[in-house]
Write a structure and sequence with these properties.
- The longest helix has 11 residues.
- Helix 8 packs parallel to helix 9 and helix 9 packs parallel to helix 11.
- A hairpin with a 2-residue loop joins strand 4 and strand 5.
- It is globular, with a radius of gyration of 16 Å.
- By secondary structure, it is an alpha/beta fold.
- The termini are far apart.
Length: 221
């Protein structure tokens, strides 16, 4: 968990990746600042440039732990920002984000390890339970949660549809899912489990899934 030494680096410039997914029909681009998530730097300049270069919706994640940073991204044109650690460690900041930015523009990322919330780039496993935090996000006025299984992320082992279904049953909040996607069948499973949307990364870069087909299947489910 959280081992950057095992990360896969794709030799593609961010702007080239952006253009590729635009050409293939992407309606939403999910950007993650890995350096910011681990507290080892920032790619804000690159992210702001990417936002300015596209007409599709962009949601930004990774190291967003202040209202100023979230506002900077939203004001630059990001459709939504994603918070995780700050939601757990500094709920007062998360609450203020709802007031200043809106619960529809801030996604609460709930990465979990066997049902327990992981924060700070998965380097810390808390005692907080996934379902409890989904309910808390809903009560605070957030309209989106992003649920990701730490044990599935980057493995291409298939989605954790059980957790997605449990979260979706809470109701009243849009559920995005990520982690383990490897096939079109995973998209169908996510929709059946109640997910509003599915974030796909490695499976696209590895050529296991066609984005055009994924979009079609997602809309037809």
């Amino acid at each position: 968990m959280g081992d950057l030494g095992r990360a896969t680096i794709y030799q593609m410039k961010p702007i080239d990746a952006l253009r590729r997914w635009e050409r293939e029909g992407a309606e939403i681009i999910h950007l993650v600042d890995i350096d910011a998530a681990y507290g080892r730097g920032s790619n804000m300049e690159t992210i702001l440039h990417l936002i300015s270069e596209t007409n599709v919706e962009v949601q930004v994640a990774g190291g967003i732990r202040s209202i100023d940073k979230a506002l900077t991204l939203i004001e630059a044109g990001a459709a939504r920002v994603v918070i995780g650690t700050v939601f757990i460690e500094k709920p007062e900041i998360a609450e203020e984000m709802v007031k200043q930015i809106g619960g529809d523009k801030v996604i609460v990322a709930l990465d979990h390890y066997e049902g327990k919330i992981a924060i700070r780039g998965w380097e810390k496993i808390t005692d907080r339970l996934l379902i409890d935090e989904v309910k808390r996000a809903k009560e605070m006025g957030f309209k989106w949660v992003l649920v990701s299984s730490v044990t599935r992320d980057g493995t291409l082992a298939g989605i954790d549809d059980k957790s997605i279904e449990e979260v979706a049953k809470v109701g009243g909040i849009n559920v995005l899912a990520a982690g383990g996607v490897s096939s079109i069948e995973d998209i169908e499973k996510a929709k059946k489990a109640g997910a509003y949307g599915l974030i796909i990364g490695k499976a696209l870069y590895e050529g296991l899934i066609s984005l055009r087909e994924a979009i079609k299947v997602g809309k037809d489910c």
